[in-house]
Description:
single chain, mainly beta, eight-stranded mixed beta sheet, 2% helix
Amino acid sequence: MLNEYRNLVQIYAGMSIKLHLRKCNLLLRVFVIFFALLVSNTLFAQATFTSGSYSQDFGNTTDPGFPYGASGSWVDNSYYPGWYVYDNIGNFQGVVNITNSAPTNTGGTYMYTINGGTGLLLGTRPSDGSVGTSSDTSNEDGTVSPHGLALGLCMQNNTGATIQNINIQFDWYQLSEAEDGGQDNSNYFDYLVANSVPGLSGATAGYTNVPALNYTGPNVNGTCCSAQVLGLPGTVHTHFNQCISVTVASGKYIMFRWWDPNDIHNDPHFAIDNIQISVATVSVSASLPTVCAGSPTTLTASGSCSSYTWAPNTNLSATTGTSVTASPTAATTYTVTGTLTGCGTATATVAVAVNATPTLSPSASSPTICTGGSTTLNVSGATTYTWTPNTALSASTGTGITANPSSTITYSVNGASGGCAAAQQTVVITVNPTPTLTISGPATICSGNNTTLTGGGASTYTWTPNISLTASTGSPITANPSSTITYTLNGTSAAGCPATTPLTEVVTVNATPTLTISGPATICSGGNTTLTGGGASTYTWTPNTNLTASTGSPVTANPGSTITYTLNGTSAAGCAATTPLTEVVTVNATPTLTISGPATICSGNNTTLTGGGASTYTWTPNTSLTASTGSPVTANPGSTITYTLNGTSAAGCVATTPLTEVVTVNATPTLTISGPATICSGGNTTLTGGGASTYTWTPNTSLSASTGSPVTASPTSTITYTLNGTSAAGCAATTPLTETVTVSAPPTVTAVAGPSTICSGNSTTLTGGNATTYTWTPGGMTGSTVSVSPTITTTYTLNATASGCSPSAPQTAVVTVNATPTLTISGPATICSGNNTTLTGGGGINLYMDTKYKFNCKHRFTCNSKPG
């Protein structure tokens, strides 16, 4: 059962399947059967003859049907449709990437790179270099079989026709030298036709060998074992090109097989590339399947053939070539025969139908018409019709078309039946023009006048209504209507064509205008007034003194004194007013304003402003005013301000120029005093006034001056000074300012050392009193209490202050330092038992011996020595 599935494995790029069977490896056999079933159910595929040819270059890295890596090698685990591999001892292996040389004897199918080149090949390799020896048992019974290796390409005939001949080209490659010079280097090409996808196997039954495509590689070395698996140059190959006769019905399959049935030991392994398989296929099409008699259509053949022949040659532009032009006069079926060079033919047919050409017969119901009239165009002889131009036609296609051209015109008609066009025919329509009427003469008159009306453009004329006309027919006539009226003119040409549209003339009777003048008749001096004329269209003013214009309306008048103007007018119709109109413009004088009263005040004060020169007054702004109208008014602004006065005369004339008054408000000074407010007894301080221009100090006790700033104060006791000041504008401070100068007495400072006498190396405390700040020297110590440890008698000076005042003289404290005595003992220090020694102490005062034989001294200032 395993052998039935060995031929089902298809090629994968990078997939390695090594099924090396042994007698006892039952589990592996089961896996192989399962895997083969899986592959057979999911991965079968085949190439096709869809376009009549198939090619494969395994080194073409742009082939869209096969994935390549960035380096131009095949990508692992990729599948290539239609290709199969077979190994009759159970060793299967997918395509892997090997560069320049063949792999070791691991068996399988590989991609190779030609030595020294960049092309890729599809090749095989025997699986075991020791086949035929006792070290390998390839069969289940322990015997050894020759190692058969095969590559297969399965293709399906989907051309729709039976294939009789196939041209096949490819390159055989020998990829290594033989290890044993006696080995057979022969490789074979076979094919097998089947109803379904056939399996690739090493059997000969069913396969047909093509001897012309077999390949026997050269035994390059010729002796055993001298060169095993050497990468040969790509020149060790042969190109094959052969046409084979084989019948493959539509839908059936053919398996092409390249194989080495006796690939034992290290027989040279092979590879193939540049596969080209072709069959003769042809199809034909016509650019126009149906034509009119003698019209052309293009016949085009396509397929895998190298040349094409056409028949019959009737009305053909050529009998050979891919594309020819046919112009048949009757229905014809053309046959094209395609030839695949040296390998069979194929035929196809195309039918071209031919339609007859129609003859047209056009006519017009009225060949001659007047402008604005119409006629009917008819035609017969075809099934469809088109009229040109389509000017003034009710439709551009069909028959029974209504034409109403405005001038003589020739219409052309084209027709067609069955897609064939008839020869063009024409119809001439003559158009006589209708008269275009005109009326000349004045159309506008003034009441009581007349006008002459003249008709033109026709031969005879009729006027309606005949009211106020000298005649109702003919031309010219005279009209003198008393009011506006519309006359209608009809006319007929000499050819008898009446005017399509009567012409009307409105005779407008315009009345003479009644004039009016509007606008103020009284103005103030320097002012103006707008005078507007009414009742007419154009106007004339006299005299033109102080007018912006002497004609038109409105006009602006600004006379310097009272004047009378006269207006004449004419209507839009040119009718002049019968009576001119006059207007008297009276000119009143404008007032000249005055303001009196103080213009400068101090802050908090006021001033009285009095207006003059007018009858009524208005003040702006009304800020800090007792009233905004009238005169006089009182102003008490908080800051400098400008008041504007407007006035009107008793005649109602407003002053042309308002008058302004600036009321300047000077601020009262805000006083300041700077300088120390506390001094020590016998000292002084400088007091500086600020915020004013001049200053007065009271009382003047102990002051260097009673006016001005700054001043020096040297009081002997605390005192309060009062400052008054006046600004440069003369404004006095509203509130005087006071400054109290406090006089402090010098402090009575004490300085005490406790104790005041110490032994060398001891310390004492210095204490100051009756001050707020303390500084001790030497040492620069601060504070009322400090600890000192002088090594010699020292006088300390205390500098102190209280309320910023120092004592009249610094205080001192003396610390007396006494030296510490150094004790000595003299006398024999060693005696015999029962004897004595004399010990003499020295260096101290009042010596005595204690029970431990240590001397102490008592000094009058309590100085204790260190025990000796």
